[in-house]
Amino acid sequence: MGDNKDDHSSPKEENPVLDSETPQPGQSHEDNSLEAIVRQFQDSMSVGKQHKFWETQPVGQFKDVGDTNLPEGPIEPATPLSEVKQEPYNLPAQYEWTTCDMESDETCNEVYALLKNNYVEDDENMFRFNYSKEFLSWALRPPGYYKSWHIGVRAKTSKKLVAFITGIPARIRVRGEVVKMAEVNFLCVHKKLRSKRLAPVMIKEVTRRVHLENIWQAAYTAGVVLPTPVTTAQYWHRSLNPKKLIDVGFSRLGARMTMSRTIKLYKLPDSPATPGFRKMELHDVPAVTRLLRDYLAQFAVAPYFDEDDVEHWLRPVENVIDSFVVESPETHEITDFCSFYTLPSSILGNQNYSTLKAAYSYYNVSNKTPLLQLMNDALIVAKQKDFDVFNALDVMFNESFVKELKFGPGDGQLHYYLYNYRLQQALRPSELGLVLL
């Protein structure tokens, strides 16, 4: 459920904004059609190796693309719990399973170190995701989480943690139906063990443990094409600290652009423009939950959040998640909401900088405040907090603001998948209301 360590290609800016007269080189939607993705898949022999595994799994298969006779919904029915395999899958002899207790500082440190050194890099190996320990604790311990779904592999002799995969429970609405699912993430195998074919065994093991809780569906993302994406989203990047981004090779100076012109192009106001724009607080949870549920109802696939979920996922946590509300100065009603999470990347092999501080757009609800204005305010507060870049996927209504707010398209694409759930037709990214970390 989430093969390959390249879980969400660590994105880099492909085409910086050159100057205001230059048209934005956007990704055309034709490239994103499922037929194009299938072609890309068939042309790519390296992915073909994983195909062996995914052909055996209850996921949409490429041969079925466009077959409208297949019903939407579960591909395989739930089996009686007594028939679920009770003991773990076999690992190669020198390795053993371990359950990673994310409440333990020691284990959290081990997981942090494994991911920091071995998780997703960009294609040129210039940047690698660096999830903080606080972030991992937040991402992996939502309401109702199962410790047994935080799975590690250790070397038997040294006890060193060499691989990791996780699931967390979620309620995801697919069209009219709310489905209990696992969100599977953080599949990471130590660089020296990539040839050992550990990933398929780990995916089968997390699947087994999810089944033991009577959950039969899952959602996951990958930077690679597997059978079969329900949609493919494009990363967009907004420079907040253009000089640093150019110095470290994340962006490049546009043709006919000087550094001072570039800095001026990306300059933002000192403070948000929207009256009543402020940090979200605990007492805002009921209002934010109502806003978010109404808003997410518009999308074909989206999480189904209750107040406990909103309190966990959206209440601000320093250096993890930032959330802001707009409170009407007249009525004190909460009218709008925006949020972004903090995911730095290590900068590999640069003398001057070791970390790229990136904000990722999360859930944003625009009611009274235009989305463009709301997101510009989000950029302003991210800049105040010393972020270098603000990233957004073209899911939900994000496409409506990226060009206007001087985001450039990145070279990272993110493919979304459902396990044991078929959609008759692939979605446009704008029909998706789900952001996975």
From TrEMBL:
Residues 74-232 form the Glycylpeptide N-tetradecanoyltransferase N-terminal domain. Residues 1-15 have a biased composition (Basic and acidic residues). GO terms for molecular function: glycylpeptide N-tetradecanoyltransferase activity. Pfam families: NMT (PF01233), NMT_C (PF02799). Keywords: Acyltransferase, Transferase. The keyword Transferase applies. It catalyses: N-terminal glycyl-[protein] + tetradecanoyl-CoA = N-tetradecanoylglycyl-[protein] + CoA + H(+). Belongs to the NMT family. This is Glycylpeptide N-tetradecanoyltransferase.
